[in-house]
Structure prediction request, 425 residues.
Amino acid sequence: MSEVVFRPNPSHVVLRPFTPADNPFPTHDLPQQRTMMVVKRVSALDPALVTRELETLKGQLSKRHSHVDMLLSRRFYAAISPSGAAPELSEEQVELIGGYLLEEYAVEAAALFNPSITTHPDQTDLPAGSIRVLLTLRAVGEGHVSSIVFRVGIVGPGGKVSFYSPAPQLVSAHASRIPGGSKDDPAIRFECGPDPDLSRFVLFPVAPGHRRGLEDLRLTRFVEDDGSVTYYGTYTGVGQDAIRQELLRTTDFRTFDLVPLEGRYARTKGMALFPRRVGGYYAMLGRQDHENIWLLMSNDLYRWNSGQVIIKPRWPWEFIQIGVCGPPIELDQGWLLITHGVGTIRSYSLGACLLDKDDPSKLLARTERPILVPMDDNRDGYVPNVIYSCGAIVHDGWLILPHGVADTYATVVAMKVADLLAQMR
Prediction:
């Protein structure tokens, strides 16, 4: 187990395609597509040199990646010969060419923050009074591209929280197109394989609508009226020139479907799904006008056209805007909602509200003062003065609240739910 602080680790890398930029002044000897020059140059090498270069490459990669042979050859066939034929090249030449058309990307070299949390689908072999939890984090690397990574932990009685150390090697999920989205920007299916350690997986953006990343996943363990369970997660897909809300769907955290949301209120940030239907409808909270918290209702999980403002900024620490952190948590007293407020010098603090269980458009109570604020020992980082969360969980009467600090790293606090409710008015 490790202490509950999650810091970026530059050694957590994945391999991603690399394509040399086209030659702007092509000639007979220098074609426009420079990848073909790589093929030509490798083909001309002495076989013994090909062997030595490939052994050096594999020795370097095998320390940080699994199935290196497969990754190298797969990249060659994807970039050079999609038909799967390479009759004039040896297998060593194929793999070495593939190595020239890949690059390592440190998915969390810059930051690791904005966590979400849910119950793990496997609750076997646990100490009495404990639950297994799954944490997701926004990992940021070169170019400020955001990916989704995972951590596994245990919450015990009394709010005691611990997490396992992550796997040393990451595996980038295999992506394919599925129905949804548009022809040029389709929905995506990520398949991670059977590895039991979820901390090995990274959901790295591949679709055009994700060119700048997958940001701020908010996980919801959703229970349908018939008792079936699906894990959904709202997140922001960041394209080259636009953003939109999308929905991640999984039942086993091995296969993930990522589908854009549609409707009037979908092209925004910070939406969070209720963990069950409310009055027969799907319900969502968001910040559609960039200032207030909205309640959205729909009979279609992927289309959102109806909504109303239910919570407005009231206290000085939220005068710029108030927004939802993660999905609402159902208590006997109502829906507990962790919020973020933005105040002076663009400081982000966390607060809480309580909504009516049967009619969540009714605000029952809220905290006058924030429950977490940037302090002298945690205000510095990539974006100063920011405390932010994408989800919390309640266990044994304790609120487990993971949160990002200064858009740089993440940690976890626990507080008694009764004490939190007593602060509300």
Remarks:
- Residues 93 and 272 are 49 Å apart (CA to CA).
